[in-house]
Amino acid sequence: MTKLLEVSGLTVGYGEAVALDAISFDVARGEFVTFIGPNGAGKTTLLNSLMGVLRQKSGTVLFKGEDLTALKPETRVARGIVIVPERRELFPQLSVEDHLRLGAFLRRREGRAKLDAGLERIYALLPKLKERRRQLAGTLSGGEQQMVAVGRALMSEPQLLMLDEPSIGLAPRITEEIFETIARLKADGMTAIIVEQNAHLAFSVADRGFVLEVGNVVASGMADELRQDPRVLAAYLGAGDRYRDA
Questions:
Q1: Predicted confidence (pLDDT) per residue in 205-216, tens digit
Q2: Residues 6+ apart with CB under 8 A from 197
């Protein structure tokens, strides 16, 4: 499989503190990779570094063979990398459809017809958004806001989609709907990195997984293999798993 993303020796820190310690991994086209781990493990730091929001102290990030080190976040979006942030970062006074159109901002020169076709694709994937298209984002439920954030990201037609804690703060039924959508994206050939505390959900859609603890990868492998790893079972998949219902 062709490697879309190649990360080598990535080290990120805040002042003297090291948040990610020389981690390396790759993501092939059409592959879903997940990073699981507790709060403070460095999962969100990883995504923010890949987006260029945080600069690495050392290491390289190659996307389609291009070194991203010096590129700003907006340039990375133009290259095809987009993130659905944990906090969703919506504008309360903008409508659902306004958010979706914002997601296509870098494609605005392609013409109204193509952007409208993009909207219809998002509405087909997330029909609830079509029902709510005139509604202000600030009046939506948490699950609906998460759908808007996902739809906005997809409007840029990304080659690599990064999802930061897509299940956080959502009721189980809504979480199930979100992950059904994620599974459909995978079936359509999307490439994605999913950061998630809920290992059960993460492994349900991932091809490969990495366990991140205190900035270090402590386990990795195929998702089905990690399900059987005694350390992963004990910490994240056991009956007493504190992340199961997170």
A1: 999 999 999 999
A2: 36, 37, 38, 39, 165, 167, 168, 243, 246
